[in-house]
């Protein structure tokens, strides 16, 4: 997913359909998140009794396109250029390079990141459906650029 690879919503296989297809071959049971803000919906392979046995493994689907999780997101990424991105579909990063190069203390970094986080408004997946695609659409940073 991105803005330069030509993907289209019509080509997306919703995560619910992925799970439905998997369940035709493997019995699955929904698992609780293993941590707050977990982005993957987890499903465990079930025993014949219908319970998850951890030894059987699990599968997870990340549904940022069909089931946005922006409101629960707790992720940020720091690029090699020193920019902090609060969304994998961000239009811009927040520059921390000077703080990092000037050997900011842990407290200074914590304060700067906290301020950026409190003001975050990156909710691309939640807002995507409200915007009409076209030449005026804002440019987004590619996931492969910031690491994701």
What does this structure look like?
By secondary structure, the protein is α+β, with helices and mostly antiparallel strands. It has 5 helices and 6 strands, in the order H-E-E-E-E-E-E-H-H-H-H. It has helices at 15-23, 97-101, 106-118, 124-127, 143-146; strands at residues 28-30, 40-45, 58-62, 77-78, 83-85, 94-95. The strands form 2 sheets. Strands 1-2-3 form a 3-stranded antiparallel β-sheet, with helices on one face. A 3-stranded antiparallel β-sheet has the order 4-5-6, with no helix packed on it.
Class by alpha and beta content: alpha+beta
**Portion of residues in helices?**
10-25%
Poorly predicted spans: none
Fraction of residues in β-strands: 5-15%
Query: Which geometry do the CA atoms define?
Result: globular
Our count of helices gives 5
The major beta sheet can be summarized as: 3 strands, antiparallel
Order of helices and strands: HEEEEEEHHHH
Calculate the mean pLDDT score and round it. 83
Oligomer: single chain
How are the strands ordered across the major sheet? 1-2-3
Give the domain tally. 2
Please give the radius of gyration in angstroms: 19 Å
DSSP E strands, number: 6
End-to-end separation in angstroms reads: 11 Å
């Amino acid at each position: 997913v991105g803005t330069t690879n030509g993907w289209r919503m019509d080509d997306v296989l919703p995560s619910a359909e992925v799970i439905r297809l998997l369940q035709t071959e493997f019995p699955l049971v929904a698992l609780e998140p293993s941590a707050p803000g977990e982005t993957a919906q987890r499903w465990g392979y079930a025993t014949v009794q219908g319970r998850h046995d951890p030894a059987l493994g699990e599968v997870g689907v990340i549904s940022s396109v069909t089931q946005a999780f922006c409101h629960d997101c707790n992720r940020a990424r720091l690029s090699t250029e020193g920019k902090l991105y609060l969304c994998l579909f961000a239009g811009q990063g927040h520059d921390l390079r000077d703080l990092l190069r000037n050997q900011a203390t842990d407290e200074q970094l914590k304060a700067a990141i906290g301020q950026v986080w409190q003001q975050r408004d990156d909710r691309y997946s939640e807002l995507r459906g409200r915007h009409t695609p076209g030449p005026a659409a804002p440019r987004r940073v590619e996931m492969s650029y910031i690491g994701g």
